[in-house]
Amino acid sequence: MAAAVDRYDTLVVGAGFAGAVLAERLASRCGQRVCVIDERPHIGGIAHDHLDDRGVLCHRYGPHIFHTRAPVVWRYLSQFTEWRPYEHRVMASLEGRLLPFPVNRRTVNELYGLHLADELEMSAFLDARAEQREVIATSEDVVLSRLGRDLYERFFRGYTRKHWALDPSELDASVCARIPVRLDEEDRWSLDPFQSMPRDGYAALFERLLDHPGIDLRLGTSFEEADREIDRDLLVYTGPIDRYFGRRLGALPYRSVEFEMRHHHTPGGGLVQPVAQLNFPSEDVPYTRTTEYRHLTGQVHDWSTVAVEHPVADGEPCYPVPRPENRELYRRYRRLAARERGVVFVGRLARYQYLDMDQVVGQALTTFARLRRAGAVAEAREAA
Ligand code: FAD
């Protein structure tokens, strides 16, 4: 007997930011009936958070720090959460010292015992060490041309090799170009005007996003199952694009991370690290960074949980490997995707792109606006 078929205006694959935002817009703005599925047992995708065994709020798939410079994204998400102001800071653990990272004037002064007084002196210091490069093609080129060899080797080379299992000379310039160099003493990770964490956590934010009578949620359900059981006019697909096409052109490679959770007894609510994130650039240390969640969440607790990151080849698809051949393979999948009718591909996995949460929310809002302009949303409603 054929399986019973349910009918919706839109089927959304994935309950992460991309899928949840589109589901919310389609249900609340267009009156659509939307079915959101996810093969995980929870909402929120990889931004999901939960209380661990000791009651500490943790991000299951790695620390997620929210910041944005897009007022539209901030205003949109503010409908679903209150915020707790939080500015992220990182220090690099180097030869027994903790130094501000990204490299700023204080990093250089403390590392070399200098007294560079202002931005001009810092700039002159870096200019004297920077290596001239005709073409900036790789991440090694980027850092050597900005900071010179010593800072490159101390802060970037080992960390990058551990994180990617590739030398910076084998990686696109874009990877290390994301990390700024500061001539002043600014030590915040991001300079975005909006920097805060969802006050009640990410899972609570997603519950409110998806709390609409037009939205049905099916967890623990893969697209491959739902495809047979759910009839729809529009498919919003936020999973891996190569998986959608049965990996017929080959698998798009990702780098993954294993999280070792360390639990510290902190009676009275003390913290273990001076800042939320410590980076370990040396290749003698087997992990890349440690993050203490209670810095991010502001939770007061007698225990503190620190996530220790061990980069690995296989596992959760975390970081698309930015190399020209992978971009070319993605472009070939993209050409197949362009021929699909009634399907939109949104989010980090469908676009094979590292995107911050705010960028994914922005992408989902733009996709919704485009669907509306194209009349695709109205068509789905008429057919329903
Ligand atoms: P996802 O959250 O991955 O959601 C996709 C969902 O689709 C998943 O739940 C998956 O289970 C589901 N799915 C996929 N395929 C199928 C299928 N076939 N059937 C059913 N379900 C399927 N961003 C920041 O702004 N700040 C940070 O500090 C930050 N830290 C990060 C740390 C790590 C380790 C990583 C990997 C990313 C980090 N990000 C951070 C990026 C952030 O996680 C993403 O931008 C955002 O969560 C992506 O949302 P998404 O909906 O595109 O994807």
Give short descriptive properties of this protein.
five-stranded parallel beta sheet, about 20% strand, about 35% helix, alpha/beta, about 375 residues, globular, single chain, disordered C terminus, 14 helices, seven-stranded mixed beta sheet
User: Mean pLDDT score, rounded?
Assistant: 95
Compute the separation of the termini in Å: 25 Å
Shape: globular
Tally of helical segments: 14
Strand content: 15-25%
- As residue ranges, the low-confidence spans are 379-384
SS-derived structural category: alpha/beta
Small molecules bound in the structure, each named once: flavin-adenine dinucleotide
- Helix percentage range: 25-40%
Number of extended strands: 17
- Main sheet characteristics: 7 strands, mixed
The strands making up the biggest β-sheet line up spatially as 8-7-13-14-15-12-16
Q: Over the alpha carbons, how many angstroms does the gyration radius reach? A: 23 Å
Describe this structure in words.
There is one protein chain. By secondary structure, the chain is α/β, with parallel strands linked by helices. It is built from 14 helices and 17 strands. The two termini are 25 Å apart. A seven-stranded mixed beta sheet has the order 8-7-13-14-15-12-16. The site of flavin-adenine dinucleotide has 35 residues, from helix 1, strand 2 and helix 13. Flavin-adenine dinucleotide (FAD) is lined by residues 13-19, 37-40, 45-47, 61-66, 222-223, 238-239, 243, 257, 318, 347-349, 355-358, 360.
